[in-house]
Specification:
The chain is of the alpha/beta class. Helices cover 22% and strands 25% of the residues.
């Protein structure tokens, strides 16, 4: 799970709020100050799931949580050792089937007239009126209703759990469904051109990428799978490298057993019959549970590679994933498949799109001494570079495990960056190399702006995959 590196310590003063670090402020790395955010966070999950996650955060901190009828209001037990007494109030709001607001308030009681009345500490620019909300709540008998201020420390934890959860890559045990049971969106470019057009959608080059183009070089990109921006940036790099008369190979996290289908499609004219043959003959594109590796943007990228070939460029596409392996066995197979593809085209520049862990060129001790594909390939080849991705909050199509339903859900989710990968408003889209080696094994970062979800090319109709806009947050 990717976590923010900005746990603010907002609760460490037993409810105290200072002028520089208030309960209702968050750290802004662009200014180096704690500031009040200007936007609400809209979560791309059902309101019930968001509220259950908020409850989990409090219960993990050993608070008792009382829920009002309807499930969109919750109260915690009193905060230990807080004087005057304090407790949490959580308010949820359902904006749609998979859109929710959750506000967390920290309420302080001050003694008045021989008893306690509720006062609030935190955000000065927004109050919450809760008339009648505390009636008959255990421990609050006789207290009057209050206003509440936001506690953004708890809300930060909530955002981490909801938007930095690991995206699952479903390998094995995920059989294909009949082609008649899936629906494909209309094929073609946004401007209305047909798939048989020979002009690839190259767009502008990726700033700073050209220094990494070399014959025999390998570039691993830690892809936030299920987004539109990574395939788009990949195409722009392929276009620029091939314009320099370099042969290029695009390596994708598609099972190696799909290679013959890819080859036939790349040799076709890309018409609807060719697309139908690729998808209907594939077990990968028709899986019952589609993760981000089989997104529409990935299929679009394969089509753009075909168009580059038609335009006369030396372009290959290699499937490098495993069919059924997991853990180190999968990493070893992916590395070998990539090395095999590179050996067949040793003079090509190879661009690899794969998950963030697979792309690392160092081992990871936090996952049972996993040795990622990237570290294995870097040992075997001299010119391997790896990039992680910097971005702003947006959406992603991903598969995640729901601890509440105890099943995998594949859908559009919000995705937030770690503090390290957060793209500031001043950081331009493009590639930035690091000046010194990094412990995670990446050599630079590809900044892509706000991410937008790309659902599967083939969708089982029962899947609910609306791509809703997500308000930006500071």
């Amino acid at each position: 799970m990717r976590w923010f590196g900005m746990m603010l310590g907002l609760l460490g003063g037993v409810g105290c709020a200072t002028a520089t670090r208030g309960l209702a402020t968050q750290y802004n790395p662009e200014t180096g100050r704690y500031e009040t955010p200007t936007h609400e966070v809209v979560y791309q999950v059902p309101a019930e799931d968001a509220m259950m996650t908020a409850r989990y955060i409090l219960e993990e901190s050993r608070y008792d949580v009382m829920e009002k009828e309807g499930g969109l209001e919750m109260f915690s037990s009193f905060i230990p050792e807080a004087i005057p007494p304090e407790r949490y109030y959580i308010q949820g709001k359902r904006l749609g089937p998979r859109q929710a607001l959750v506000r967390v308030f920290r309420i302080r009681y001050t003694q008045e007239g021989g008893g306690y009345t509720a006062e609030v500490t935190g955000r000065s620019s927004e109050h919450l009126s809760v008339p009648g909300a505390f009636t008959n709540i255990p421990g609050l008998e006789g207290y009057r209703p209050a206003h509440g201020y936001r506690d953004l420390g708890i809300e930060q934890e909530l955002q981490e759990l909801l938007e930095m959860a690991p995206a699952l890559e479903l390998v094995g045990g995920n059989p294909p469904v009949p082609i008649r049971s899936v629906v494909m969106e209309s094929w073609g470019e946004k401007d209305g051109t047909t798939a048989t057009s020979t002009a690839p959608a190259c767009d502008a080059p990726v700033a700073g990428a050209s220094s990494l183009f070399s014959a025999g070089g390998v570039l691993l990109v830690a892809d936030p799978l299920g987004t539109q921006e990574v395939p788009s940036a990949a195409l722009r790099m392929l276009c620029e490298a091939s314009a320099q008369e370099l042969p290029v190979t695009l390596a994708l996290s598609i099972p190696v057993s799909e290679q013959p289908l890819l080859e036939r499609y790349l040799a076709s004219d890309g018409d609807s019959a060719a697309v139908q043959e690729l998808l209907s003959g594939s077990a990968f594109w028709r899986r019952a549970y589609q993760d981000g590796r089989s997104s529409r943007a990935m299929l679009w990228l394969v089509e753009q590679a075909r168009r580059l070939r038609v335009s006369g460029k030396d372009v290959g596409v290699a499937a490098i994933d495993s069919d059924n392996a997991n853990g180190n066995e999968r990493e070893a197979q992916m590395a070998q498949h990539l090395l095999n593809a590179q050996s067949k085209r040793p003079q090509a520049w190879t661009l690899v799109l794969t998950g963030s862990v697979h792309a690392r060129t160092t081992e990871v001790s936090w996952d049972g001494d996993l040795e990622p594909m990237g570290s294995r390939v870097a040992r075997a080849l001299p010119a391997v570079r790896a990039l992680d991705v910097g971005f702003q909050r947006g959406t992603q199509f991903a598969c995640r495990y729901s601890v509440w339903d105890e099943e995998v859900e594949c859908n559009v989710f919000g995705i937030s960056p770690t503090l390290e990968a957060r793209q500031s408003s001043k950081q331009a889209v493009g590639l930035q190399l690091f000046t010194s080696p990094q412990p995670h094994g990446f050599h630079g970062r590809l900044y892509l702006g706000a991410l937008s979800a790309s659902p599967p090319a083939l969708q089982v109709p029962r899947q609910d995959t609306p791509v809703d806009s997500v308000p930006a947050t500071k």
